[in-house]
Amino acid sequence: MTRRGLAALAALATSGVCALSLGNKLYLYMAAVLAAALAYGFISCLWTRLTVFCGQYVNAKTVTRGENAQLTLRAGHKCFLPVGSLQGRFVYDGQASECAFPTAPFTPHERKMQVPARHVGQYEAGFQYVAVQDLFGLFSMKSRPRDAVSLLTVLPRPFDIDKPRFTVGDDGSAALARTQEDYNAPEDVRAYRAGDAMKRIHWKLSSRKRELLVRRFETPAPPDTLIILDCDMPRGGENVAEGKENLRDALCETAVAVARLQMEDGSPVRLPIYGRQANEFSSDNAASLSLLQEMLALQPFGGGEDFARVLNLELRRMRRTGAAVIITTRLDAQIVEGVSHIRRMGPSARLYLVTYTPDDPDYQPFVTRLQHHLVEVCYVTPA
To answer: Is residue 213, in this structure, part of any structural domain at all?
Structure first.
C-alpha cells in the first residue's frame, strides 16, 4: 500500500466513525466511495500482479569491448481492469534503471535499450522486478520474473602492436637446436653422410649391416610463444575513475594482441592462466582467438597464484619456448628476478608493464636491471 493508500484508509476510518457517531449520510457516502476505491485498487493491482509476464533477451551473447549491445525488455499482463502504471526495473553491470510499459492488457509490450560494453567480463542483464500500481495510486505490488537474467560477455578488443623481435619471429634455429639435443626419440635410420655427428651413429645396427647408419630423429615442432599473464588483482588505478576495470581491460587486451600477432604467422602460442579459475590456452590457429578472448573475459582477476611464483613455475617450459611475454601491473625485485631467470634460460623476453604512471621513478631501477639482462620493456597505459 502506498502513502496515498494509507491516507485513503485513514480517511475511510474517520468517515466511518463520523457516520456511525453522527448519523450523517454524507459521511456514510464518503466512506462507501473510499471503500469502493480501495477495493477496486486492491483487486486490480493484485490481479495484474498475478497475471503479469516479463522477460528479456540480448541481441548477442558476446560483444567486443567498446561496442553496444541491445537489450530487449518485454512485459504485459492479463487483467482487463484498468491499472495506473506498469514500471519495470532492470539491472546491467550492477547498475539499475527503470522503464515504463503501456498498461493495455493481453498484449506484450517491448522496450529496446542500448547497453554499453565498457569493460571486459561477463555481466547480468535483465529484469529485477516489475512494479504494478492501481488506477488511483493506492496500491503498488512487485512481481519477480520467473526467467533468469540474460548473460552478456564482453570480450577484450585487441590493438595493434609492433612486431616483437622474438626468437620465434626469426627462423627459430636457437630454440630448435635446444630441442634437438635430446636424442631419445629416433624416428628411423639412414646411411651415414659426411658431416654427421659421431654420436648419432647407430653402432649396433651398423655392425650388423656392415655399414655406417645414422639415427634420424623427429623434426621438433616450432618453439612456443609463452604469454605469462598476471591474473592477480591489478595494482594501481585507485585515483582514477574505474581504474581497476581499465587496468584489467588493458591486461586482457595486451595478451590478446600478442597472441593474435603470433598466431597470424602460424606460430604456436601458449597462455597458462593461474587465476581463481585455472586454465590454459594453446593454439597456433588465428581462428581460435575468440576462444582466448572468452577465456580471459570469464576470468575473475584476484585470488590466484602470486605472480612471482607463477614466473618460477613457468621455468619448466623454457626448453620448448622461443619467446616469453610477461604482462603485469606490478614491478618489484621478485618479478625482475623471475623475468631475468627466464631470459637466462634461453628464450627472448619482453615485459609489458600496464600502468597509469609509466614515468614513476620507482620503476627505473627495475627497468634498468631488466634491460641489463636484454629484456625488452614496454609500457601500456589504459584507455
So the answer is: yes
